[in-house]
Amino acid sequence: DKQSLSMVTCTAPVNIAVIKYWGKRDEDLILPMNSSLSLTLHQDQLKTTTTVACSRNFQQDRIWLNGKEEDISNPRLQSCLQESILWRLNDFDCNGTCTSMTSCSPNDDDDDVKIWFVLVYTLSQLFGVESEQLSAVARQGSGSACRSLYGGFVQWKLGEQLDGKDSLAEQVESESYWPELRVLTLVVSAEQKSVGSTSGMHTSVETSQLLKYRADVVVPSRMEEMIRVIRERDFPAFGELTMKDSNQFHAICLDTYPPIFYLNNMSHRIISLVHRYNQYYGETRVAYTFDAGPNAVIYTLQDHLSEFVQVVRHFFPPEVSGEEFFKGLPVCSADLS
Ligand code: PMV
Question: Is the ipTM of this complex over 0.95?
C-alpha cells in the first residue's frame, strides 16, 4: 500500500585485530595484502545503532548522524548508498528512497568504520540481501569492518581471486568459546588520528619493504598459529603473538616514508608497564594491541583483570597523566559476547 513504511534497526559492534590488516593489493575492491584476525567486542559504549526507514512517500535520501543531518554527497556515503540502489529497485514496497538515523559512541578511532558498515548492513536487512554478499559491501566503507559481520573470533581471509569474491570474513570460534577472556580499553587520547588508515596504508604499500616481507612471510604462518592458540585457549601464546603483531604493524609505520607515528609517549609507557607486569609473574598475563592511534586495547583473563586495573591506576593517576586517560570511556572490562 502507498502509505507503507518499512523500518529496520541494527547495531554494529567494534572489532579489534590481533593479527593486523595493513596494506591493500587492490584499492578499488578493498582487497588486503594479508589475512587478519580480530575479536568482536560487544561493549555498550562502543556500538553504533542505525535505523533505516524506507517509504514511497519520501522525496529524497536523507541521513542523520548523532542528530545532525549529513551531506549525502560525501563520497563514502555515496558508495554505501549506491550499493543499496539495486536492492531498493528489486523491492516492491519502495521507490528507492530511504532515510536513516545513526547514533554512535564518541571517543572511538573507528567511528567511520562502524557508521558506514552499519548503514549498509541495516539497508541490506531492510531489503533481505543474502549475507554472502555482505563482506564485499562492508569492505567498501572500511576493509576491517567486514570482520564485524560475526561475533567472537573472526578472520578476514586474504583470498586468491582477482575479483575478490573469496576475500571474505569467516568466524573462527564463537563468542562463547573463551569466556574468561577480557578486554580493557585505555583511552590515551580522544583526538582524531593524524594519518587515516586509507592514506597510511597507501604510503606503506608504496614505500615499506618490511610490509611486503610481513605479508608474504610472517602473516601466513602467524595466522595459523593464532588460530591454533585460540582453539587451545592458550593465553600466554595468544598474548605474545598479539603483542608481536601489534609491534610489527607499528614497525611498518616507522618503515613507511615519511614515517607514520601512531603511538605516543603514553602508549610507550603502557607497553613497558605490560612487559614489566608480565616479567614480574614470569608469564604473559596481559597483552596490548594498538591500531592506527595511541589508545591501548588490553587483552587479559578475568582472574588478572582487577589487579591489572589497579596497577594501571597506580602508575597513571588521572592528575599525573594530564591527558584524557580516564575520560570519555571509563576504564572498564567488557565481556566478549
Ligand atoms: O579498515 P581500516 O581501513 O580502518 O584499517 C584498519 C587498520 C587497523 O585497524 C590498524 C588494523 C586492523 O586490522 O583492524
Answer: yes
Do residues 253 and 261 lie in contact, with contact meaning Cβ atoms separated by under 8 Å?
yes
Tens of pLDDT along 110-139? 455 556 667 777 777 777 776 666 777 667
21 CA to middle of ligand 1, Å? 6
Quote the CA–CA distance of 302 and 304 in Å, as a whole number.
Answer: 6
Residue-by-residue DSSP string for 208-264: -HHHHHIIIIIHHHHHHHHHHHHHTT-HHHHHHHHHHHHHHHHHHHHHSSS------
Please name the residue that has the C-alpha cell 611486503. Answer: 212
Protein residue closest via CA to atom 6 of ligand 1: 144
* DSSP classification of residue 30: T
Q: Give the Cα separation of 127 and 122 in Å (integer).
A: 9
Nearest-angstrom CA–CA distance, 334 and 184: 7
DSSP codes, 60-78: S-EEEETTEE--TTSHHHH
| Three state DSSP letters for 155-188 | EECCCCCCCCCCCCEEEEECCCCCCCEEEEEECC
| Ligand 1 proximity of 148 Cβ (cutoff 6 Å) | no
**SS3 (DSSP) at 48:** strand
Share of the chain above pLDDT 90, in %: 50
CA 321 to chain centre: 26
Place of cell 573469496: 166
Work out the pLDDT band at 324, boundaries 50, 70, 90. Answer: very low
Cα–ligand 1 centroid distance for 36 (angstroms): 9
Question: At how many degrees (to 10) do helices 111-126 and 75-89 cross?
Answer: 10
- Ligand 1 pocket member 316 (CB < 6 A): no
Q: Are 54 and 90 in contact (CB under 8 A)?
A: no
Q: How far apart are CA 81 and CA 9, in angstroms?
A: 17
Hey, what domains does the chain have and what are their CATH numbers? 5-173 (3.30.230.10), 181-335 (3.30.70.890)
